[in-house]
Amino acid sequence: MKNHKRLRVLFYVLIVFIIFMIVIFSIMIAVLKIDFVIGVKIDHSADTKPVQWDNSLNLRQGYNQCSAFSASAFIYSTSGEFHEPRTVYETFSKMDNGMVTPFEIVKYLRKSGYSVKLRYLGLMGEDRQKRYLIDSAKSNNPYIALVLDHGVLHYITVLGFSDGFFHVYDSMQSPSTAGFTIDENGFSPGNKDFSLDEFYEIWSGPAYKRIYLRVIIQ
To answer: Are 102 and 121 in contact (CB under 8 A)?
Structure first.
């Protein structure tokens, strides 16, 4: 009898825990605009609309301003509108070190009329993650990626994928003339190209308390 009672208690505790987790996930999805991606289905409705880009947008960021420069690049590549990135940065709520969380970028983009979410891809295996990253870029659906670049958390904007390379705008690219970066990828959008392995290495690196983040804003 005692064993039956213990099992019954454990069962009730498990049910309460499951309900609690469902509530937490619901809050995260509704309030924080997080999407837990478990498949590779991509919306190809934007296939006929090429990504917009102008090399005059290869702007060099100031200290810790990659969030705003990436958001500005996303907006222009999606709609052709230009949001001055330094002005955008001033509107962000920041951490003590000046960095900006992905949630703040999502909030700004949604206020600007873009129905983006923070998409967590960590529930998929490596092959599916790579396929999602490629298919999104090939479908003319730009996204902001959180990467680990030389040990530093950094935001970049993925603008396309062709011939085996991601076409990326990186506001930390080496400087050219005052206020601008060099352009390493010629006629492709952005200022830098990454092979699949190169991109996956920096994208899969960011972690918080040993939990890999593996997120994009899209």
So the answer is: no
